[in-house]
Amino acid sequence: MPKVQYINPDDVRKPGQIEFKPIPVNQYSKTVEEEKENFSNEDLVRIYHDMVVIREFETMLNLIKTQGVYNGVEYNHPGPAHLSIGQEAAAVGMAYTLGVDDFIFGSHRSHGEILAKGLSAIDKLSDKQLVEIMDTHFNGETAAPVKAGHKGTTKELAIKFLIYGTLAEVFARKTGFNKGLGGSMHAFFTPFGVYPNNAIVGGSGDIAVGAALYKKANRKEGIVVANIGDASMACGPVWEGLSFATMDQFTELWEGDMKGGLPLILNIMNNQYGMGGQTCGETMGYDVAARIGAGVNREQMHAERVDGYNPLAVIDAYKRKKKIIEEKRGPVLLDVLTYRYSGHSPSDASSYRSKEEVEAWEAQDSIIWFGKELVKAGVATEAQLEAIKAETTDLITNSMKLAIDDEVSPLMDVKTQPNLIGEMMFSNQSVDKMEDRPVEVNHPMEENPRVKSLKSKERFMFDKDGKPFSKIKTYGLKDGLFEAIVDRFYKDPTLIAYGEENRDWGGAFAVYRGLTEALPYNRLFNSPIAEAAIIGTAIGYAMCGGRVIPEIMYCDFLGRCGDEVFNQLPKWQAMSGNVLKMPVVIRVSVGSKYGAQHSQDWTALAAHIPGLKVVFPVSPYDAKGLMNTALQGTDPVIFFESQRLYDIGEQFHEGGVPEEYYEIPFGEPDVKKEGKDVTILTIGATLYRALDAAKELEEKYGLSAEVIDSRCMVPFNYEPVIESVKKTGRIIISGDASARGSFLRDMASNITELAFDYLDAPPVVVGSRNWITPAYELEDVFFPQASWIIDAIHEKMLPLEGHVCKSDFTEAEQLDRNARGI
């Protein structure tokens, strides 16, 4: 913790009690007549119009899914359709006060929120702005179908564009807002302030917090709204997001204009059900979801329950809560009470709830009720309202016809371009800084104490006589990481870094020592011990245009952020149709010495997931060059670092580690020692044990080993490895990951296929045992040792004269281990 915060035992041990403030529940009581002084008739009619548009859009999808036809137009939509029929007032009320600088995130049930926010944005944008948005989005490809034959105003055209772009996306069409790659559950449109909707329940809970962090840390206009369902309040990422969003440091430690809470509204679309479970009364115990705010911070997140069946009540709440956020007193929690008439999806028969309950809510339908109130107040006539319904039916029908027309709205052409989706996986851009403005630092880089101290360090491990320098004088791997990171902090004003113990400690392994002095709190800070939030917020931060380095202290903790690392981070670039970039570099340390839950190598998990670049340098020269490359890019990178090697010096690159900036291309393995009899390909710290094995092979058995450091796993260029195998005819692949299911096995498979004609023996994998990682004192029987590599060569490839194996690499042993699963 920061030294400036003194926890006084005399204060914290005093007896007392915690008092909670009342949480308002459905307090809004104005009539439409009373609100006429705050809304024009046109405003009130537009609210009704937007609700009707959402209802008809969702009704159309429901009919297509259940009957295969809407308004005489037949279509078979095999994809998902999670509907929000009944929730229209909540969505329109949420969006009404928001501008394009206000961002919303949603769930799999967010068609209504997309349309509500889009319609609100169209009302606020000028005709010139709307034309520019339509003409520039995918070079006008989405707008072209609705432009053809359009007669009417620009705003009417923009509404057609919104409906069509959303529907084309739902139907996986190339002309959709995200080229059809997002689909129903992930559709979004950033020019209108609609950010990704999430198929994972609660998935937006921490990502939206990251978007609010981006706005705060980069002084951007607007607020962020996280629209999540009531059932998502059971999800870990939501609670971790809440912990992150309400950190005291925002008001206690961040300084100047950075002081104050996040511009975030957690908007619980409380429709009473999560799939088939009733949240209030069955699967949750909070009774009123607004109660949750009381457990998070002293302000109780300014929590309130609002009647989401009345759009004016929701608008009133948003006006009041936005004022709180403008005063930097956020975040805010709103429990917006609503109801969905339909089941979880059209295939859900709603057998878990009574017909009487559904009918009771339908009897108070918000659209019918609000229409009657407009007529009663003299705002509109029945005929006007009927005209709106008829025009909306025509709008949805025509949009549907366009969206299902294979000529006008084709699918992506993956027949003539079979790698088209693959080309969407990475942006592969090189960008110095995500935004062109001055960086915020505490002093010039050359004045930084650690930068100055590195000037006196030896950048090559050995002196002219081949003797290693002392540890204190040697420029180590963590110094290479630091130089790359500090350089980028002085280049990119959007770059921030955070994680557990990142600030005052200098990072868990001292990589960040020196950054604390250089950077203000809003660029480098400690996070809660909440790995899901650490990565989830980084995703939201990057989505909005920032670059970020979140840190996972131990590789084993990737399990705590599994959804974020494996299901969110890798997918959004492709699912956006490459609209979004994801410049996130996750630093992950791979440990040893600390047993089963702190010493695992999970590189294979990361490498298995499409959309992640995976890097594992193990020398100072490579660490600096690859980190520079990672931080110059716009793709998500999992950057593994071995705790064994943070202090190791450079012993491969002649001249040591350059002081100046340089990059090492991803995917290029590096020959660390040349040889002619056998190839040893390594991942991670095993490189140094392979070099020990190579030395023994040469000295004792006259065998020349070529040692190759993979450096990267994704991407990976096999050609240098194949060239080596052409020369040696044999290859050992070794790393610290447990052998079963490892990337080592994947490499062996690929090499067998690609170099079969050059192999004198099958590739052999030497990985760790398929056990728990034991204590430090027993690690030599778990992690690959130099002797294992030699034993494997002797047993599997080339008998070594006079060699006696210390470990068992026989086929019988291999069969037995697999049979027993160990």
Question: Care to give the gist of this entry?
Answer:
The chain has 822 residues and is α/β, with parallel strands linked by helices.
Itemize the secondary structure elements and their pairings.
Blueprint: H1 9-12, H2 32-35, H3 41-67, E1 69-70, E2 73-74, H4 88-96, E3 103-107, H5 111-124, H6 127-136, H7 144-147, H8 154-170, E4 194-198, H9 204-217, E5 224-229, H10 236-245, H11 249-252, E6 264-270, E7 273-274, E8 277-278, E9 304-307, H12 311-326, E10 332-337, H13 355-362, H14 366-376, H15 382-404, H16 449-454, H17 477-489, E11 496-499, H18 515-518, E12 524-526, H19 531-543, E13 548-552, H20 562-568, H21 572-575, E14 585-590, H22 603-608, E15 613-615, H23 620-632, E16 637-642, E17 670-673, E18 678-683, H24 686-701, E19 705-709, E20 712-714, H25 719-728, E21 731-738, H26 743-754, E22 764-768, H27 786-796, H28 811-820
Helix pairs in contact: 3-4, 3-5, 3-14, 3-15, 4-5, 4-12, 5-8, 6-8, 8-15, 9-10, 9-19, 10-19, 17-23, 19-20, 24-27
